[in-house]
Model the fold of this input.
Amino acid sequence: MAAATFAGLELTMSGSTKSVLQAIGLTTDSRLAALRNATTWLNSSPLTAEGLRGKVVAVDFWTYTCINWLRTLPYVRAWAEKYRDTGLVVIGVHTPEFGFEHDLDNVRRAVKDMRVDYPVAVDNDYAVWRGFSNNYWPALYIIDAKGAIQHRQFGEGGYEQAEGTIQKLLAEAGASGVGRESVAVTGQGFEAAADWDTLRSPETYLGSDRGERFVGARGTRTAAGHLYSAPARLGLNEWAAAGDWTQGGQPMRLNAANGKIVVRFHSRDVHLVMGPAAKGTSVRYRVRLDGQAPGSAHGFDIDAQGQGTLTQQRLHQLIRQPGPIMDRQFEIEFLDPGAEAFCFTFG
Done:
């Protein structure tokens, strides 16, 4: 998410580059030393740079609402399982993007729901992120048994190269029976690969900190926010709101029932990071596609009539079209107050 909205950028270091990195101290001990500053650990006791010496280590930066990371998860999960007994240690570093992703209960639930069973360093203070000079979700760093970073992958893609590096480094570290076959992965739900051939809509933030392509009008001030109105027609990738909303730095927060958000998009999938503003509450909502119930184009968080209920702060899949893919108008109406909407992503 955020900086990592592209298909992927793969970097494999040359021998001379590795020598320079080792000379200036960018090795396991200096990079992985940041693990000691993790907020807490899930699925493991705390791991240290000293304890990881002699191991091949894959460090995967993620945040649980990031669709770009979710589409890489089947590969990371499969590598952790396949190579665990031959010396690979996979560490997921959960560095939050949105405020609610700092909530440890939310992260614990995501780890369970997403079947992440390898060690997770919770990085609420961005200490591990800074230790790696990282800028992306997702970002994968593969480190050899001698402590040098041998491969980096920013964003989606590059799976064969990454796994080939893992296999090579394990063999160099003395592991036997590693093999050269790649894992066979078929992502389901959120984890399914994007339909890159038809994707024409970018990640779209709704809060004032990073919002863009907003074309609605903010009108009369209310007790909590403003009354917004949407134009009759939107251009591709433009969005608007209608109803009584407060636009915060990260979310749009609904103050009164029957508020709407509308976006014109071109993609197979529509996702929205959203949830109830208050934990333990629920908000009913209804989705329309070109003014109609989505029918067979509904995502797994709504039914064919477009009905759904917010109970968690997370990414929601609202549309998965069977095709053909064309410019369409998406509308979500929240039937109760108290919803927060953060970011659209497409696929």
Summary: The helical segments are 15-23, 28-31, 67-70, 73-83, 104-113, 127-131, 159-172. Residues 9-191 form a domain with the Glutaredoxin fold (CATH 3.40.30.10). DSSP finds seven helices and 19 strands in the chain. The longest helix spans residues 159-172.
